[in-house]
Model the fold of this input.
Amino acid sequence: MDTNARMEELEKRLTTQHHRDLFLQMKHTLKAVDDLAEQHRVYQAVQALSGTRIVGAEESVYFDTLNQVKEQIIHTLELTIEDLEHKGDKNYTKHFKDGVE
Done:
């Protein structure tokens, strides 16, 4: 499932449970990561214009890491939603022992 479809599904599940605030927080966090990536791109462009050699392999690692961070944020929200959906279920093993609310 692609990221946009996952995001839509998460929003539906959270809105149904009256926890849309969690979705918005995740959305804002992902935007902050995207903003960081854009700031880095601009900085690297300025560096390149000033004659600094840009190492492509390092750039690739940087952006791969940011994508992994974004994936982890989405995955954590999915686990949080599972815990919310199973609230009160005695046979369910929580992902977050300290709770989700």
